[in-house]
Amino acid sequence: MPSLPGCITEGDTIQEVPENAHEAIKGYLEALKLQVARCLKRIFSYFTGKLRFHCDDDTALSSDM
Fold first, then answer.
1. In whole angstroms, how far apart are CA 28 and each of 1, 33, 37, 48, 60?
2. What range defines the domain where residue 33 resides?
């Protein structure tokens, strides 16, 4: 799949190629989904640790309350 870097497939017959391509794309997208989830978790953890909520009376409340 030229538009999906590293996503490669083959088949012994012309009939196998579409099925193999479908499986390769599914695997590629699943791996991409897991990678994005890990990145979002790291980003969320970083910002959750930094986040503070401020009240009108200047009292800082931790985001984990």
1. 10, 9, 14, 30, 44
2. 1-38
